[in-house]
Structure prediction request, 173 residues.
Amino acid sequence: MTQEFRKTTFNNGLRVLTERHEGVPSATVGVWIEAGAVYEKPEERGLSHLLEHMVFKGTSRRSLQQIAAVSDSLGGQINACTERELVCFHARVLAEQAPLALELLCDFLTCPTLDARDLETEKHVVLEEIKSVEDSPEELVEELFQQTIWPDSAWSFPILGAPENVAHFPRAT
Prediction:
C-alpha cells in the first residue's frame, strides 16, 4: 500500500494537508481553526465553544433538517470539537463522499445562520456541559491543573467557557 503526503499553501495563507492511502475505501476530512480558549478575552470565554455548537443548527445553504439529511446520506460521521488552541470540524466518510462532506464543513464555516432562537437553546446545552465537568473527575482535574499551572493566563481559561459569559452572549457577539 502506497502513501502520499502533500502540503499546499495558498496565497491567502490557507494550508491544505493531504495524506493518501492507496486502496483505503474511507476518507477523513477536517478543518482546523486557530481559535479557542487561549485566544479569547475574559469577556469572550466560551464563545469559540458556543459557535462550534451553533454552526450545526443551519447555514444559508442548508437548514438543520438538510444538514441532518446530508450527514445521514454520507454514511459516516460529522462532528466538531473545541480545544484550547483550536476548533476542529471533521468528517469520516466513504472516500467517494469526501467532497460532499468537505462542502458541508465549509458551509459551517462560511455561512452559518446563527439564529437567535437556536442561540438560546445552545446556550442551555453549553451551560449543562459546563456543569457536567464537576461530575467528571478527569475533566475537573484537567481544569484545576490548567488553572494551577497557568494562573492569570489564557491557558487557565476553561475550554467550555465561563457560565456567566455563555448565558449572556448576544447574537451580535
